[in-house]
Design a protein that fits this description.
The chain has 393 residues and is an alpha/beta fold. The chain is 31% helix and 16% strand. Bound molecules: S-adenosyl-L-homocysteine and iron/sulfur cluster.
Length: 393
């Protein structure tokens, strides 16, 4: 489809040359870590082994101080401490909801803040992380969409969110006790469903998730990581190829007319283009279904016809449909659909052969629901007029 909607994206480039001052190790891929170690004087012959050792300390056992890396010589530890740091974002506030949900307010370089949410369930625990501060897109129902993009998070800040949650949950194995791959884990799943559009920060998200999946570190299986996108069609294929994680798509509407308003990126890549990319998603199979996220908005996208159109549209795609009761926020231009309506919608989808779980609102007492993360201190706001104009409201 042709489209002229003014949707733009500011991409910050990652400097590839050595920065001045100590280098942060967190967020570097194994290859990049090897490069910087060599550039700072580690003999090339030893570099691979040093990468392995440092990697295990940092990502396997959660160590932040070179002095504790006892399988490295004292002299080498001192050298590392001079040239490198092991730095993750700082938790500035933590709230724990009555249902156990934990919301962290996290400060990153430049004084910006993002939120991270940990949602415990009986057999697993999911961490919802952010990929950008703010978002360039302006989905009408999303609070992040009211905040201008401040910047992309670095790979270190993305994986750092996982590390700080592991710190808080006290879930780092001790050296010599494996990497936690065998036992049940408190933090067993990651969803990229916080602030921002992960596919507009592709390289950093990829590098961070590669670190999360590395078997000698955090060691989460790719099936336990879900990336949610609003539908950045050209990047979808790359997600399967270069990250290999599970995919969720913010679908939210069954006609272009409605989706153009709710998810304005639809004007650039419409429903047909999106579905085509999903049909080609190399990983989609019955055991690895694509999640279609569908926010339930009263009298906007929640009719029986919508439910029927939805199942027709996605026919042939291995899918499950996650119905999300709209999380209201002050000034939002929508209301949550009635409970009976959501159940009726779910029933139609279910009878057509798709799993259609209704996402239980979690941590509502601390406003921690994933997908509406908000930072009280983030002042850069898009004007309501901009949002309404974008959404055609
Ligand atoms: N930018 C990505 C990921 C972040 S949003 C995306 O749009 O997919 C994660 C999910 O929460 C998306 O499906 C988003 O549409 C949904 N969401 C955002 N605001 C919401 C709200 N107020 N209530 C319910 N779901 C919301
Ligand atoms: Fe951005 Fe996703 Fe919110 Fe849309 S729903 S504004 S893409 S964070």
């Amino acid at each position: 489809m042709t489209n002229t909607a003014p949707i733009t994206q500011d991409v910050l480039t990652i400097p590839r040359k050595l920065p001045e001052g100590p280098v942060n190790i967190v967020g570097l891929t194994r290859d990049r870590l090897r490069e910087v170690l060599i550039a700072h004087g580690t003999p090339e012959k030893q570099a691979r082994m040093r990468v392995n050792q440092i990697w295990q300390w940092v990502y396997g056992w959660g160590v932040r101080d070179f002095a504790e890396m006892t399988n490295l010589s004292k002299a080498y530890r001192a050298e590392l401490a001079e040239k490198f740091v092991i730095q993750i974002p700082e938790i500035v506030n933590r709230e724990i909801s009555a249902d156990g949900t934990r919301k962290y307010l996290v400060r990153i370089a430049g004084g910006h803040e993002v939120e991270v949410v940990y949602i415990p369930e009986t057999d697993r625990g999911t961490l919802c992380i952010s990929s950008q501060v703010g978002c360039t897109l302006t989905c009408s129902f999303c609070h992040t969409g009211t905040q201008k993009l401040v910047r992309n998070l670095t790979a270190g800040e993305i994986i750092g969110q996982v590390m700080l949650a592991r710190d808080d949950l006290d879930e780092w194995p001790t050296k010599g006790q494996g990497f936690g791959t065998e036992g049940p884990r408190l933090l067993s799943n990651i969803v990229l469903m916080g602030m921002g559009e992960p596919l507009y920060n592709f390289d950093n998200v990829r590098d961070a998730m590669k670190i999360a999946m590395d078997g000698e570190g955090i060691a989460l299986s790719r099936r336990r990581i879900t990336l949610s996108t609003s539908g950045i069609v050209p990047e979808i294929h790359k997600t399967a190829e270069e990250i290999g994680c599970m995919l969720a798509v913010s679908f939210h509407a069954t006609t272009d007319e409605v989706r153009d308003k709710l998810v304005p990126i639809n004007r650039k890549w419409n429903i047909a283009a999106l579905l085509e990319a999903l049909r080609d998603y190399p990983k989609a199979s019955n055991s690895e279904r694509i999640t279609f996220e569908y926010v339930m908005l009263k009298d906007v996208n929640d009719s029986d016809e919508d439910a029927r159109r939805l199942v027709k549209l996605i026919k042939g795609i291995p899918a499950k449909i996650n119905l999300i009761p709209f999380n209201e926020w002050p000034g939002a231009p929508h209301q949550r659909s009635d409970w009976e309506r959501i159940e009726r919608f779910a029933d139609i989808v279910y009878k057509a052969g798709y799993a259609s779980p209704i996402r239980t609102p979690r941590g509502e007492d601390i406003m921690a629901a994933c997908g509406q993360l908000k930072s009280a201190t983030e002042r850069a706001r898009k004007s309501r007029k901009d949002i309404e104009a974008e959404a055609g409201l």
